[in-house]
Structures are given as C-alpha cells and as structure tokens.
Task: inverse folding
C-alpha cells in the first residue's frame, strides 16, 4: 500500500489547513488509519486516528477540539481538518494505515506510512 499525503503549507496562527491522504489500494478501507507528526528535534507523535468504518476516532490531547479526522472509503482517503492552528503544530505530518480495523496511538500498530507533508504555522 502506498500513501500520498497532501495539503500541507504555511499559515498564520489561528488559521486552518486540511490534509488529505490517499491510499493506493482499497485494502486500506478495511483498516484503521492515523496521522502522526514530527517536529524538528522531536520524536514522532500521535495526532489522530480513525477506525475502518469511520465510527471511532482518537485524538491527542494537544489537538482535541481543534482537529477533525474523517475518511471516505470509496476514495481510499483520510482527511485531517486542522483549525485554530498554533505554532506548536508546526511539523511534518504523516498518514499511516493500521494493522487492524481500529486506529491506535501506538506507531508500531501501523503497517504503511506516507512520505509526509510539511505544516508550518507562524505566530
């Protein structure tokens, strides 16, 4: 499974961006999917995840209430709507396909990873 993430860019604090990730195979529609991010000098951290049917979602405490994850299995796509962006959200964002039906906060529970898309939030 190959993943292609897009939608990153530069925005001022308080602004919004929408990230999209398209999977190359329909297989991903049976798996949980997630978003992680990595800021310079920091470890990769969990952002959000969604179950294969889209009925269950997870968010990190730092983005809860600001970010919304969704998916469209007909398009093999998962999106991350990011609102009220803060400079601390600056990072490379990665999408990933889980090993099971549900998303997870644990990166080891993901089998495939996209190449990442840069998000930069200025104050």
Result:
């Amino acid at each position: 499974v190959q993943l292609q993430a897009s939608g990153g860019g530069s925005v001022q604090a308080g602004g919004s961006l929408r990230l999209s990730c398209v999977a190359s195979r329909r297989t991903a529609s049976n798996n949980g999917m997630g978003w992680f991010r990595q800021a310079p000098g920091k470890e990769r951290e969990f952002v959000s995840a969604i179950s294969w049917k889209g009925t269950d979602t997870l968010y990190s405490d730092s983005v809860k209430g600001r970010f919304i994850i969704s998916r469209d299995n007909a398009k093999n796509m998962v999106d991350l709507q990011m609102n009220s962006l803060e400079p601390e959200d600056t990072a490379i964002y990665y999408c990933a396909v889980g090993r099971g039906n549900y998303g997870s906060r644990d990166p080891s529970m993901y089998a495939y990873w996209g190449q990442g898309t840069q998000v930069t939030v200025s104050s």
